[in-house]
Each structure stands twice: as C-alpha cells, then as structure tokens.
Amino acid sequence: MAILSAYTLIRMYIAAHLTIGYLLITNPRLIAEQNFVFIMGESLGLPHPKSTFHLNPLATSLLGLIFILNSISDFIAVSSTEEVSRGYWDAQAPVRLTFFFLLTGYTWLYRGPRGTVTTHPVKNSLVFSWGFVEIMWLFWVYTQLREEKRGAQLRIAMRKRELMRMERRAAGIVDEEDEE
C-alpha cells in the first residue's frame, strides 16, 4: 500500500500546474531563476534560458493560461466518476510520459558543447527541468494507477452490479438472491 493514492498525486499535480500558471502570468522571473533549474542546467551542461525570458509578458502569460487550462481540464476529469477518471488518466499518463521523454531526450541529446550559447528556444535548462519533473511525477502517477487498478476494477464492477440490481427491482423483476 502506497503512502499517497494516485488521485492524491494527480490533485497535487493539478495544484502544481495551477501555481506554475499563476506564476508565469504574475512573476515569470521567479520560475526562470529557480536554483533547481540552475543546478540541472549546470550539471548537464545545458544553457540557461535567455535573461529576457521574463521580459516577454505576452508569451509567458499565454503559457501560464495554457497551464491553467490544462489543470482545469485535468481537475474536471479527476472529479468525475471513478470509471471516467480512471479511463482518462490511464490514457493520459502514458501519452504525457512519452511526450516528456521525447522532449527531455531532445533537449539533452542535441544540447551542443558545454558553454555554448544556443538560440534554440527548447534547448535550455528550464525546458529540461520542467520535462524532467513532469516525467518523475507522471511516472509516479502511472505506477500508482497500475497498482490500484485491480481494486478499482472490482469497485466499478460492484457498483455496476448494484445499479443493475436496483434497475431490476424498479422494473419489478425479483432476483433469486433477493428471494432468500
């Protein structure tokens, strides 16, 4: 049994995305100058984002709004019935993991020699750090979903069975189990 359930991890993931979206709109410099981003960039020889990253409010605000929209849609999905939510996250987690594996792989493999300055907007420590954290988080969510899958399938089947039993009673059909 894990300390945190898959849905708790997903809600924390959503809260992190809401926070990042808010910060990208109000104070993008705070994100660009995080120590974690600097350490990841230095340890892997990745260039840091341009110092003008936070001076482009249109781009960072749009990115912040995309983060907020994504977190709202994820929140609606996780707040749905267990069957709908589980189907959504069972499909989303591997797709997002694949995307972020490709993004971080591209950023790291094509980073160029150490100490060079790149003008490419994706090959920097901020993008790599974001992708790396997303991979860690989504892999944790994915493994938790897989671990909890059997129990969820049993709960969903029991709910369906009970719903069918209630519908049969409402229609006046008596089950053999109910007669005893």
**Could you tell me the number of beta strands?**
0
N-to-C SSE string, H for helix and E for strand: HHHHHHH
Mean pLDDT: 86
- Let me know the largest β-sheet: none
Q: Write down the domain tally.
A: 1
Spans of at least 5 consecutive residues whose pLDDT stays below 50 are: none
Secondary-structure content class: mainly alpha
For the record, give the distance between the C-alpha atoms at the N and C termini, rounded to a whole number.
37 Å
Q: What is the count of helical runs?
A: 7
Bulk shape: elongated
Query: What proportion of the residues form beta strands (DSSP E)?
Result: under 5%
* Rg calculated over all Cα atoms: 22 Å
The helix content is over 70%
Organism: Tuber borchii
InterPro entries: Incr_loss_mito_DNA_1 (IPR018815)
Keywords: Membrane, Transmembrane, Transmembrane helix
Protein name: Increased loss of mitochondrial DNA protein 1
Give the arrangement of secondary structure elements.
Blueprint (H helix, E strand, L loop, with lengths): L5 H21 L1 H5 L2 H10 L12 H22 L3 H28 L15 H46 L5 H4 L1
Helix pairs in contact: 1-4, 1-6, 3-6, 5-6
Give a nutshell description of this structure.
With 180 residues, the chain is mainly alpha-helical. It has one domain. It is 76% helix and 0% strand.
Can you give a write-up of this model?
This is Increased loss of mitochondrial DNA protein 1. The chain crosses the membrane at residues 12-32, 52-72, 93-110, 122-142. With 180 residues, this protein is mostly helical. The protein is elongated. It has one domain. 19% of the residues are buried. It contains seven helices and no strands.
